Amino acid sequence: MPPHLAPVPLDKAYRLINHGPTVLVSARHQGVDDVMTAAWACALDFAPPRLTVVVDKSSYTRTLLEGSGRFVVQVPTVAQLAQAYAVGTRSLAIDPDKLAHAGVTFFALDGHDLPFVEGCAGWLACRLLPEPHNQSTYDLFIGEVTGAWADTRVFADGHWHFETADPRWRSLHHVAGGQFYAIGEPVAAAGDAV
Amino acid sequence: MPPHLAPVPLDKAYRLINHGPTVLVSARHQGVDDVMTAAWACALDFAPPRLTVVVDKSSYTRTLLEGSGRFVVQVPTVAQLAQAYAVGTRSLAIDPDKLAHAGVTFFALDGHDLPFVEGCAGWLACRLLPEPHNQSTYDLFIGEVTGAWADTRVFADGHWHFETADPRWRSLHHVAGGQFYAIGEPVAAAGDAV
To answer: Ranges for the Flavin reductase like domain (chains A, B) (predicted)?
Structure first.
């Protein structure tokens, strides 16, 4: 387990993606690992924590995800911009050395037979909730979160700390092509007591 | 139609929400209008443009949306922070003057019998694609975008211009309670030609 990694309570897991970041989706099946970029990921429920992610039929990661019924949704950072762009534009089916070329390194977490991408800000281990109609008609996958972790240098005590962390920890929000916005500054509604 | 409002080509409509903003969902049915805040909205397809949005069973807006089969997904701004928080925490079922109390004003667009929230940065008029299983099991609604518009002071030529617009035009990205992040600065992967 990387230093600075800490578990996130499942009732706070949704907060890792509540602000709409572009994510990396990774999966493992029969000894093959892959990871892809997905701008279309979204929280779906608090308890149990669930999420949706759109994964195109052309994606090799989809084959792995459907084969194993497990995947990881993780939040890449500005420091990983080149990597996030590379794994979203190259396919393992075409470039067998995709992961090395993109500079991706996976790490393991006990009890989860899944590839976790090093350097991300947060990780959500998911179990696929099979919904064949959604998957075939809309490329829409629903995952139930079975474990969540974050790097304490940017997420701690159930909250992001983008405003005090190094700017290279900011999440990426995809526009098109290789263009992204980084997340910005906090704003709060008057009278909010949270 | 408000000044500065311009249509967005449908093939670029997904870009209004691709970076993961919190949105306002409005609907009209039998003469009643309502609007609510939704952090869990996401693009689903490019062509035809489709999106998902999670709308809780306790929401009055959901009743209207299910009744008419139409809704608007719009992108509120930092200038609308108090309004976005207010319409997400008050229900029309409890406060019949919710809209006035939150300072919401609707405008009309020819050919769309829908309430569009003034002051937003972008608007997506949607037709509900009925999926009863998703709606009842997951509170998940799928919309097909039938029209898109943006305020040209912050979105033009198919792109957001947050970095040159007044900071009050930045989109909101919900954390929890009344806490949000504003979208931040653009970053681009090296070698991107888009």
So the answer is: 15-166
Amino acid identity at B141: F
Residues of B in contact with A183 (CB under 8 A): 173, 181, 183-184
Nearest to B61 by CA among B19, B98, B10, B103: B98
- Give the 3-state secondary structure of residue A138: helix
**Of the partner residues A44, A139, A180, the one whose CB lies closest to the CB of residue B187:** A180
pLDDT at B12: 97
Which listed CATH number (2.40.110.10, 2.30.110.10, 3.30.420.10, 3.40.50.880) goes with A5-182? Answer: 2.30.110.10
**Mean of the pLDDT values across residues B115-134?**
98
CA distance B141 to B52: 6
B57 CB neighbours in chain A (<8 A) are none
**Helix spans in A80-131 (H):** 81-89, 98-102
Check B50 against A138: CB less than 8 A apart: yes
Q: What is the nearest CA distance from B139 to chain A, expressed in angstroms?
A: 8
Q: What is the ipTM of this complex?
A: 0.96
Domain boundaries, chain A: 5-182
- CB atoms A41 and B43 under 8 Å: no
From chain B, pick out residues whose CB is under 8 angstroms from the CB of A52. 42, 52, 140
